[in-house]
Amino acid sequence: MARKSKFLTGRRIDPSPITSETSIAELVDSDFVSYNAGRLREACQLFVDKILSDDVTVGFSLSGALTPAGLGISALIPLIENGFVDWIVSTGANLYHDAHFAMGLPMHRGTPNADDVALREEGIVRIYDIFFDYDILISTDDFFRELLKAPEFQRAMSTSELHYRVGKYLAEREKLLGTEKKSLLAAAYHYAVPIYTSSPGDSSIGMNVAAMALKGNKLAFDVSLDVNESAAIVLDAKRRGGKSAAIILGGGSPKNFLLQTEPHIQEVLSLTEKGHDYFIQITDARADTGGLSGATPAEAVSWGKIDPDRLPDSVVCYVDSTIALPILTAYALAKHPPRTPKRLFDRREELMKNIEKEFQEKFGKIKLR
Q1: Which of 224, 341, 342, 349 is in the most buried spot, having the most CB atoms within 10 Å?
Q2: Is the dihedral of CA 132, 138, 141, 142 positive or negative?
Q3: Is 182 assigned a catalytic role?
C-alpha cells in the first residue's frame, strides 16, 4: 500500500449511533463530525483542553439578546460559578434585561409571527419570539433611576464598577425575593467578574443615566478607564506567564472591545506583546460583507489582536449563539472540574498600577487616568 498522506491522519469518520443514553459530551465528541458541527466540536474541545487551564484568563463578549432568552440563567451563570469566565464585555441591553430576572419580572415564550400592531395595542413588547409586558420596562427604569440616586454613584466610574455596584443591589433583591441565581450581574458581583459595556450609551441603562444627568446626577461613564482596565487584565495575564483567551458570542462592538485590548497594548501604548492566545468565535456573519462581526482570527492577526503563533488554537463556528452556548456550557461542565475564580474586579487597582508603571517606564510620567 502506498505511503499514507499526512492529510489522511484525521480520525476516521465512524460516529457512534445516537441512543437515548447519549450524553451531550458524547454527542459532541462522537457525532459532531463535520461542517459547523465539526467546528463546534473543535471549539468545545479547545475550551476544555486548553482554555480552561488555570493559567489562562478567559474573556467573553456577549452581543444579541442572550439574557432575555434565559441564557444568563442557563449558561452564563453556571460558567461564572465554575470559574470558567474571568471577565466579560457585553451590550448594555443584555445587562438591562438581566435585571428583570433578579426583580422577579416575567419574560414569556412567544412567536416571531405575532401581529406587532396588536402587541403594541396590548402593551406587549417583542424580542423576536420573547414577549413581556411594557410595564416591565417602566419598573426596571424606575429601579435604575432610584438606585442611581445613591451617593456611591455620584461620580465618574468605569462600566465595570457601575455593573459591580448594580450587581450588589440585584443580589440583595434576589435574596429578598427568593430569585437567587437568576441575574448575571448578581453572579458577577458574587464572583468579582468585571463586566464592561463597550457602548454604554446604547442601552436603557445608558438612557437612564442620561435622564438622571438632566436632574443633576453626577454619574458618568469613564470610557478611558474601561479601555485601560480591560487592557490591564490582558497584559497582567501575559506578564504573569499565563495566556489570554477570547470567546466571542456574536459580534458587534463587544467583539471588537474584547479584541482591541491587544492593539491598545501594542500599537497605542507601544508595549511588547503578541496577541491573544486562544480564540473562539460564534457568529452567523460573513467576513466578505464588510462587517467586523464576521472578521476571522486570521484577519485579527494582522491587527495584532491574535498571536500568529497561536492561530491553530482558534476556531470559528458559523452557528447561532443560542445553540452553541448551551452546548459549550454543558460540555465544559461535564468534562472539566471547576476552576478557582480569578476575582479580577478585586484586583483592578493592582492591574492598573502595573500597566501604568510599564507605560511610564517607557514614556515618562503620563497618567493613564
Answers
A1: 342
A2: negative
A3: no
